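Sequence in, structure out. Go.
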Amino acid sequence: MKKNLTLIAGCLLFVVLLSGCGLTSKQIVQTQSFGSATENIGKLGEEEFVNIRNGIIEMNKELVAIDNTKTASDLKFDRPTSPEATATRIAATKALKSYGDLLVNLATEDRAEDLQKAANSLINNTTAALKKDLSEEEKGAINKIIVGFGSFWIDNKKADAAKEIIPAYEESVNELADLLAEDFSLNDGSLGYIKAYDTTAKRLKNASMRLVNAGDQYSVLERDHAVQALVLSERAISRANEISKKAEKAIDSLKKANTELVKVIKEEPYSTDDIKAYAKKVQELVNMFQVLEN
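Output:
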């Protein structure tokens, strides 16, 4: 009997120790909310950079077809969205997606293999996007996950990893957000992707309107082609404006929520308003993408 009581007491102590160092319920909720929103914004960005490049190629093709002032020297259809430039931007969005995935996994009951996969993806895509190595602090925090969670202490290890990674990765997340902000800005002087998309659409619109307004100078077939190009350009201009507005708000919210999550994980005084606003802005962006799908 005494032996059984000792065994039971030992088991209870083990359970207490096992659960005592995990994340609090509030930390779990906020980490999951931020992680899910960041994973979504990464997915959307990854898809949109490919969509923008394909859209620019299509509009430039139409522009050359209807504008007889264009010559062979104008046949750089993907300018300025080259494969190399697009790959760098996709790496940035994949890094954010991996970071969000990692945080969700750390705050839930997912397998150790999922954590390791997300951690490796985070390292590879962040270094590719920012074109620099991670800091020693970032490497140390993430390497703890890559080494593995093979013991019964996995919940405690996940909590410890979250408490290290979130503060250590704060600066890199902000840098990735800044890269996205530039690419989704329509401000004068912007060299980003959405600005190039909008500029290409306006060129196509001007060229197609000249044909549409030329009366009987062109055949019905040529006029029909010009009308289709005009519709394509109008849709692209509208798409650029709507996505830019929603994306800029979501990215700005990302940086504010990132700062707030660090406070949450460090158990410093915080408000959850920024994380809630971030999740809302990302959902609005998701909804807009669905409306504007090709």
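Check: Confidence is low (pLDDT under 50) at residues 1-20. Residues 23-291 form one domain.
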